[in-house]
Each structure stands twice: as C-alpha cells, then as structure tokens.
C-alpha cells in the first residue's frame, strides 16, 4: 500500500532515508525492507516493532540494505518502534540462519523461538501493588472484610496476590482503591537472581574422577570451540564432574547453559546444583508461568543469569555472553523437536558452540552412535569415567528366558522375577518394574466375535486406561468410555484386555505382594513437573516399595534405595523395523538398570526376553559396550545410514489416500538425478493414518559429503504447490526411519 502518495506527502529522498531488512516472526524465509524513521538509530540485531499487514509485530533488524531499489522507496513502511531489550547478537542470528537453512524451516519461525513470541518482550512491567491507606471503607461486605484482614499487616502486596490470598475477585480490590481505602503503588521489580558461587562447595574428587575434572577445567578456561564427550558409566559422577566446567565458566564471568531432556528437570537436579553452588540455577522449560518466563528471558538477555538449566528451547535464547554449553543425556530422543521447526537440539547446540566459538560438553552413559563415531574418529575429545563413584559396583544383568520360564497366561511377572522382588522387599530395598507402555492394556477385544477396538481416524488400537476408565488413542487423543458390551455383536461381559501396560502390572504386583506400597510413574498420570518432583521425593525417601514405570523413570534419577530392576518386556522396542531400534533399546535398558545399586548394596537388572540371543541382550549381559557399538557402527556404515550418510524424510499427507499417494509419486518423478542421492518410496509412512490424514513417506538418502538440505530445497522449489489439504513436511535427520 502506497501510504505516502495517498496522503499526499512528498517521498523522502533516498539520500536521507535509511532502509534496513527486517525479519518478521511469521512463516517466511526472507526479511522485508522497512524505512528507518529519522531520529531512530538501529543496527542489525535490534528488536523493533513494525507494521505487517493490519498488525504490529515484534521483529528483528536482520541486515542493512545498502542499495535498495529506489522505486520501492515510497512503498516501504516505517519501523514503528525500537524496543528497549538487548539485541539478538551476531552469533544468535548466525545460528538462526544456519538452523533455518539446514532444517528447511522459514527463518521467521526459527527466530520466534528466540523471542518467546506471544508474550510481552522487554523489561518486566512493574505490577500494581496495594496497601491500606487508613481510610475506612464506606460500606462493608464479607469479601471486603476478608481482604482488609489480609492487608491488615500494612504490607504492600501485588493486587492479584492480595485478591488471591483473600479469596476475592480483583474487582473487590479495585472497589476499595476507588473509595480510597487502599492505595495503589508499583511493586518493586524482582532483584536479579543471585549469582552461583563457583567455590561454594567443591567436592573431593576420587582418583578416577580427577583426570576428567582437570579436562573439564581446561576446556572451560580455554574458551574456544571444542567438543568433549563426557562418557561415564551410570553413577560415575558425571554431573559433579561437569559442574567443574560450569564453575570455571562462572569464574570467567560467562554464562553456562545446561540442556536436559524436559522431564529430567526435576527438583533433584536443582537441589544438587544448590548444594554445589549455593544457589539454584535459572530454569527454562515449557511449564514456566508467562511472568517467570518474561523475567528469566530478561535476566538471560541482560547477562544477569549466570547458569541456565533448560529444555531444548533454551538453546535459542539471546544469551548476553554464553561461554559453555552442556548437553546432559545427549543420546536422549527428547532432544528432537518433531513439529514446527524440526531440529535436534544436541546437534544444533554443537552448531551454536561453533558459531559462538565456545566449548560444549555432551554427557551420557550410553552415547548416541553419532557421538560415539565422532569420539572414535577423534573429532570429539572423549573424557571417560569408567567406574562408579564411592566404590559402588555397576549393576549385574541377568536374562529371564520367557520361552522357558515365563509366567502363566495373562500374567507378566515371571515366577523368578517375583521371587527376587519378594527378597528385595524383605531386605527393605526398593524394586522397579519397567515397562515402556502406558495404560492398562494395548488392545481390547471381544471374546465372542473377535472385534478389536481401533481408532477410527488413526492406524492404531485404542489403549485401555483403567484409572480413567476409558479407551484412548495414543496418537490423536480420541477417547471413549470402556463399554460393558461389545458394540459389534452385543455380547455382554465379553471384552478382554490383551497385553500389559503399567496399570495392569500394578494390579499384578498388588496381587503378588499385597503388603507392598506400589506407585505407577507414567506420563499420563504425571501432569506436571511439580507432581513428578513430589513422586520422586516419595521414592527417594522410601515411601514406596515397588515402582512401576515407563521410560519416565529411566532418566537421570538417583534413587538411593533401589537395587533391583525387572524389565518386563525387554524386546518391546526391537520389533518395529526401525534401524535405530537396537541403539534405542540398548540405551534405554542401560539407563533404567543404571538406576540400581547407586548408593549401597549391589544393583541387579533382570531382563525378561524372548530373544536371549539378540546382540543387544548379549551385550547387556556381558557389559560389553564396545562390542555393541562396534557392531552397530559397522551396520550403519554398511547400509550408509547416519552418521555415515545423510537422511531426510518427506511426509506427504492428505485427507484421502489417493491424493497423498499421487502427490508423493509426482514428487519422486521430478526429483533431480544425482548419483550420490537415492530417493526411496513412496511407501506408506510407519503410521499410515493419523488424525484422519493418510500419510506417505519418501526417504532421501545421500552420501555424507552431499549438501542434502540444498538438494531438497532445489527439488521442492520446482514441485507443484501443495493445494487443498495436502501437506508436505520435511524432516532432516529423522529419528525413526
Ligand atoms: P551419573 O550422572 O554419572 O549417573 P551422578 O553425577 O548422579 O552420576 O553421581 C552419582 C552419585 O555420586 C550422586 O549422588 C553424586 O552426588 C555422588 N558423587 C559423585 N561424585 C562425587 C564426589 N566426588 N563427591 C561426593 N559425591 C559424589
Ligand atoms: Zn486416533
């Protein structure tokens, strides 16, 4: 829209008006040009507001535009305002560019992650506070009386807090402000978080830890780009050891970021941090209130927060002077974001460290095959911790062959495992039954007619959730009450549960051990990080005898009384045809068994399996990690799968099958020929129907040396537009394939 000519002003002359390119936070890939109004000083990285269509949006000045097309000049709009927040520094803009380019995501969408979109940016606005003025109210009501009682101590309280404490609406507060009974004044801004003290409580390191500690300190004080793989067995003290790199970074006045899988962000970690540094770290994850997010964002951008512990999205924050990144449990799949901008936070953390020229530490007891290969090739420095701290032994692992010593029909805990659990409880130790399956049973069928309950819009069975008394689809969330009658043949009392979930295991455990206290830990029962914290506390303090859990319990936790893990179905993750299945299973089982024997006594893990000869089972029993990685690496090398080749997955979906399939075929037909690139498919995606959408998949495989993102960009640019409800999603480095 040509604003200047419409209202008759003269066009500004090009010699005096500056033009800059501004990236707006929407799904577009390039910056738009805007004029800089006279008197405004902006530089690349500055956060501004600009008009975009009918809206005003928060955006970022991306670059100067030294030679704008003069004909465009008068059609451009002005930047509205420059916000009083720290700029997005060059290194962060370089990361955003890199991620957008690599993942084929619009740059505007990647940038949104740095700006905490949807919330007010900038320094926290002062909240209104209220206190008593001394004037009596003109009229008294029960609500007013409660409010005045709360405020009778004369202290200043935030308006909303006062209302909440008294159990009244803020309208009651406003009424008394209008009558002069309460005075209103701004609440003082919360002080910046107190800095952690790097010398607060340095532990005594064991002899085997000392070399790793020295390596940590050196790496942090060198302050250059360098990747270290902190490869330490469970219970070796990886956290204590990497804390020394954090301490060194803090001493140098720089910020440290500790990335964790979201669910591991529990009180235990924060308490340990406080024990070591005297203060808790600043947190960043999806459950922060908007207010805390705003405050933490500002503290990070201003450089007041010295140590940040966060989930993957913390990687994109505008740190003022980031000096170190740690990726804890680096092998964890939760680092992959699978919607919106699809990125792998561990890999992008390495990119960030590279552009910022800082060290990064990847920590794990079971590194990803990618990191293991990088360490073997010398691209990453391996820092190893091969024994547990305090002389504790690594857990022993035994197999229970379900073909020979399985439980009776409809039961899932074998007699031998039951016996071991009984002994553990008698010794007043805890036991953990591990089954990576939520709900009561994965399938419900009718004994009379064979009808199976399936989701109508997904290619999946409905999972029986007894605690909620519903059958639930784990893919779209559809649920229905569990009926008493078969909807197909109308038989009564004919429905049977097939297979176990954690809820069913609890039923079995309760029947076997009527006096034991059981607890189910599963993501659908844990509604927040807060409930997780309290459940973990109950375990740590011994208020539970048998823990029954999904992978939620496998990660990072330290349970001092746990010495026995029974893996109910060790084969569960192996059967799905995914080339990463063996790696995943090996990591998961190692992690979960690694929860045992950490403080006293001997840990032991029992694996119930139908495949005792499987390489994963054999490696676990023999504690032969090297053998496992070597055979897995050889297999990847032979087949050209990552990290020896590159891989992308294109998912084409539509409301009907033929449209999705024919679009996928057209894509294949126009794929540019390249001898280093293979396009496989189309084939039905592993889940061929989700939420009523039919899905086809193309796998694109290339040599490592190929710029696969560039190839895809060229190919997709010439593809027909996805019209109607056709959708094309690109996933670089898919985690399951
Ligand atoms: P990992 O992360 O390698 O599984 P942790 O860092 O959780 O191991 O350490 C296991 C336990 O040993 C924790 O309770 C930790 O506090 C303790 N620990 C490790 N190293 C030391 C040390 N040097 N001094 C005191 N306690 C330690
Ligand atoms: Zn469904």
From TrEMBL:
InterPro entries according to UniProt: DEAD/DEAH_box_helicase_dom (IPR011545), Helicase_ATP-bd (IPR014001), Helicase_C-like (IPR001650), P-loop_NTPase (IPR027417), PriA (IPR005259), PriA_3primeBD (IPR041222), PriA_3primeBD_sf (IPR042115), PriA_C (IPR041236)
Cofactor binding mode and count: Binds 2 zinc ions per subunit.
Catalytic reactions of this protein: ATP + H2O = ADP + phosphate + H(+); Couples ATP hydrolysis with the unwinding of duplex DNA by translocating in the 3'-5' direction
GO MF annotation: an example: zinc ion binding
UniProt binding sites for Zn(2+) 1: 446, 449, 486, 489
EC number: 5.6.2.4
Enzyme type, top EC level: isomerase
A GO-annotated cellular component: primosome complex
The Helicase ATP-binding domain, residue ranges: 219-385
Domain of life the protein comes from: Bacteria
Record: residues binding Zn(2+) 2: 455, 458, 473, 476
Keyword GTP-binding: no
GO biological process assignments: DNA recombination; DNA replication initiation; DNA replication, synthesis of primer; double-strand break repair
Record's function text: Initiates the restart of stalled replication forks, which reloads the replicative helicase on sites other than the origin of replication. Recognizes and binds to abandoned replication forks and remodels them to uncover a helicase loading site. Promotes assembly of the primosome at these replication forks.
UniProt family annotation: Belongs to the helicase family. PriA subfamily.
NCBIfam families in UniProt: priA (TIGR00595), PRK05580.2-2 (NF004070)
Protein name from the UniProt record: Replication restart protein PriA
């Amino acid at each position: 829209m040509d604003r200047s000519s419409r209202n008759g002003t003269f066009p500004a002359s090009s010699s005096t008006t500056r033009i800059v390119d501004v990236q707006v936070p929407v799904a577009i890939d390039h910056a738009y040009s805007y004029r800089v109004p006279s008197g405004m000083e902006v530089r690349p990285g500055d956060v501004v507001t600009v008009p975009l269509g009918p809206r005003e949006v928060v955006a970022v000045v991306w670059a100067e535009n030294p030679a704008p097309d003069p004909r465009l000049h008068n059609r451009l709009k002005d930047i509205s305002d420059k916000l009083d927040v720290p700029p997005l520094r060059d290194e962060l803009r370089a990361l955003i560019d890199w991620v957008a380019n690599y993942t084929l995501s619009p740059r505007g969408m990647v940038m949104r992650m740095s700006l905490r979109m949807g919330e007010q940016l900038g320094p926290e606005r002062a909240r209104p506070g209220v206190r008593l003025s001394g004037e009596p109210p003109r009229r008294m009501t029960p609500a007013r009386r409660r409010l005045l009682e709360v405020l009778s101590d004369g202290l200043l309280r935030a308006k909303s807090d006062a209302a909440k404490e008294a159990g009244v609406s803020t309208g009651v507060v406003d009424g008394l402000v209008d009558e002069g009974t309460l005075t209103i004044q701004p609440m003082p801004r919360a002080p910046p978080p107190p800095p952690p003290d790097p010398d607060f409580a340095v532990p005594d390191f064991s002899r085997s830890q000392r070399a790793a500690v020295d390596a940590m300190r050196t790496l942090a004080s060198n302050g250059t780009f360098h990747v270290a793989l902190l490869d330490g067995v469970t219970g070796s003290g990886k956290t204590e050891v990497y804390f020394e790199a954090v301490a060194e970074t803090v001493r140098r006045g720089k910020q440290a970021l500790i990335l964790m899988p979201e669910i591991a962000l529990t009180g235990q970690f924060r308490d340990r941090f406080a024990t070591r540094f005297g203060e808790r770290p600043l947190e960043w994850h999806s459950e922060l209130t908007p207010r805390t997010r705003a405050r933490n964002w500002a503290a990070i951008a201003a450089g007041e927060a010295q140590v940040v512990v966060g989930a993957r999205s913390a990687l994109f924050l505008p740190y003022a002077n980031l000096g170190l990144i740690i990726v804890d449990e680096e092998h964890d799949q939760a680092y992959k974001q699978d919607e919106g901008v699809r990125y792998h936070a561990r890999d992008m953390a390495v990119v960030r460290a590279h552009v910022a020229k800082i060290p990064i530490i990847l920590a794990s007891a079971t590194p990803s095959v990618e990191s293991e290969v990088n360490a073997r090739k010398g691209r990453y420095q391996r820092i190893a911790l091969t024994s547990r701290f305090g002389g504790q032994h690594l857990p022993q692992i035994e197999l229970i062959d379900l073909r020979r010593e399985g439980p009776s029909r409809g039961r899932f805990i074998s007699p031998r495992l039951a016996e071991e659990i009984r002994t553990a409880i008698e010794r007043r130790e805890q036991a953990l039954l591990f089954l990576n399956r939520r709900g009561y049973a994965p399938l419900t069928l009718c004994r009379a007619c064979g009808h199976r309950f399936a989701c109508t819009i997904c290619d999946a069975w409905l999972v029986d959730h007894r605690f909620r008394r519903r059958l639930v689809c784990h893919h779209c969330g559809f649920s229905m009450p569990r009926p008493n009658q078969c909807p197909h043949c109308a038989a009564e009392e004919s429905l049977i549960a097939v297979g176990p979930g954690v809820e069913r295991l609890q039923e079995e455990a309760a029947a076997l051990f009527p006096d034991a206290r059981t607890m189910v830990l599963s993501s659908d029962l844990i509604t927040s990080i807060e409930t997780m914290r309290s459940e973990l506390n109950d375990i740590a303090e011994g208020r539970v005898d048998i823990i029954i859990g999904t992978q939620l319990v496998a990660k990072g936790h330290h349970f001092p009384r746990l010495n026995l893990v029974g893996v109910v179905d060790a084969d569960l993750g192996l059967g799905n045809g995914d080339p990463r299945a063996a790696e995943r299973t090996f990591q998961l089982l190692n992690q979960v068994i690694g929860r045992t024997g950490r403080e006293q006594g001997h840990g032991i893990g029992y694996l119930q399996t139908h495949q005792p000869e499987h390489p994963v089972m054999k490696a676990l029993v023999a504690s032969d990690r090297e053998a496992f990685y070597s055979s897995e690496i050889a297999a990847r090398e032979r087949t050209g799968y990552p990290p020896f080749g590159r891989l992308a997955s294109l998912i084409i979906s539509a409301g009907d099958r033929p449209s999705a399939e024919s679009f996928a075929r057209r894509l294949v037909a126009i794929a540019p020929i390249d001898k280093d690139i293979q396009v496989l498919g189309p084939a039905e995606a592993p889940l061929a129907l989700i939420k009523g959408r039919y899905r086809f998949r193309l796998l694109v495989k290339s040599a490592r040396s190929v710029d696969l993102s560039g190839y895809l960009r060229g190919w997709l640019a010439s593809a027909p537009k996805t019209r109607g409800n056709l959708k094309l999603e690109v996933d670089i480095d898919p985690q399951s394939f």
